[in-house]
Design brief:
By secondary structure, the chain is α/β, with parallel strands linked by helices. The chain has three domains: 3-121, no CATH class; 129-259, Rossmann fold (3-Layer(aba) Sandwich), CATH 3.40.50; 289-453, 2-Layer Sandwich (Dihydrodipicolinate Reductase, domain 2). It has helices spanning 3-32, 48-62, 68-79, 90-99, 106-113, 138-150, 171-180, 241-244, 289-305, 349-356, 391-404, 455-469, and strands at 34-38, 41-42, 86-89, 129-134, 157-164, 181-182, 186-187, 192-195, 200-203, 206-212, 229-233, 252-257, 283-285, 307-317, 343-345, 364-371, 377-389, 411-414, 431-434, 439-451, 475-476. Strands 8-9-10-5-4-11-12-13 form an eight-stranded mixed sheet. It has a seven-stranded mixed sheet with strand order 15-16-14-17-20-19-18. A hairpin with a 2-residue loop joins strand 9 (200-203) and strand 10 (206-212). Helix 1 packs across helix 2. The model has no long low-confidence stretch (mean pLDDT 92).
Length: 481
Amino acid sequence: MTVKDDSFTDWKNREEIAESMIPMIGRLHRERDVTVLLHSRSLVNKSVVSILKTHRFARQIAGEELSVTDTLPFVQALTTLDLGPSQIDIGRLAEIYQADDRGLSVAEFTAEAVAGATGGNKIDRREPRDVVLYGFGRIGRLVARLLIEKAGSGNGLRLRAIVVRGGGDQDIIKRASLLRRDSIHGQFQGTITVDEAESAIIANGNTIKVIYANDPSEVNYTAYGINNAILIDNTGKWRDREGLSQHLRPGIDKVVLTAPGKGDVPNIVHGVNHDTIKPDEQILSCASCTTNAIVPPLKAMADEYGVLRGHVETVHSFTNDQNLLDNYHKADRRGRSAPLNMVITETGAASAVAKALPDLKAPITGSSIRVPVPDVSIAILSLRLGRETTREEVLDHLRDVSLTSPLKRQIDFTTAPDAVSSDFIGSRHSSIVDAGATKVDGDNAILYLWYDNEFGYSCQVVRVVQHVTGVEYPTYPAPAV
């Protein structure tokens, strides 16, 4: 048999193994509210090829490719356990098991590693919590996709309604079409139908009421059977406590803003300061996409090396706030054509660092350039560190953070030598460290951080909502602290 035949036979065998994983992963998710991960990447509702690609991606961050022959026994072991709601990373299980010298079987090791999610230790499955989207633009539709995707187990978060201004004839059909097809993020994974008579969009069996209103005061959510809901404001029209408080109508318990909050509104970056949210806090902000991109790696660097000062330069994709062609705009430069120009603009991300990392006393400055790409941005974070180090040490540290730390859902790591912005469309991490571009000279470090400013940020928003509603389930093996 030739090498070519050997490779093809090996591929077909791995396809067969991955195919056998799919129903087990699906049952764990639907029946027990267990999400199977591979190095923080969900394997729920993934195709055979997607599962194999995710295993191969581990080569970039862990140094070697994971094989489905290594991870299948862990999936099989999980199906035999009395598991409660949780997230279980089989990549980490396989990695830790290889280093374990006690001679345990895979089944014995797995049972021990996830003991906190089994038997009397398991937490109760949460009742569905209602969610309302106020506004249905770029972020609103991506958050909707994520909420619908995560509703597969029938627990957790349930998207009940979207609130928009009336847009004339066939408004609901056009909005459903925008949810169904996206020029950047591709097709919606599932089916979408419209019930015009009931003013509802049905997505993967989830009935989402479309409510038309010009102002928060016009809506009584209890009239639609919505109670104790989380309202996510995607409009950015109101950013202080007084303005956002208008949403606290009958049926709404908390308000989450998808833009930087002003005044005393808490700015939350999940993974960094989400545990500071007070249980009785009704209004909070998820900060900006750029703040979510720079704060996690900034914290990782500050914790290990100390940071004396820093500057962030963001090269940001254009947004709907800019004009397609030169036209009047209240901002000086944003009126110039977005797809034809690089546009210098301001960013509040640097000043927002203080809200998310109050213990970091280092001054952080920032500026931004909008460029003619529709999605994925890069933040160049230049830091003066508290001690000298090397490029190799910094990369080893950030790789380890991306794999094992509490920030592993926020920070990703790539060693691809030819990586470009479009490679990171759809990334669920808020920040991806580009190892090849990283520069370190003594106590100076420059990090190049990619981020999908639409989808990665939307994932952070959903994580915050999961946390405040109590449906953010524990992860096993537990991240290293």
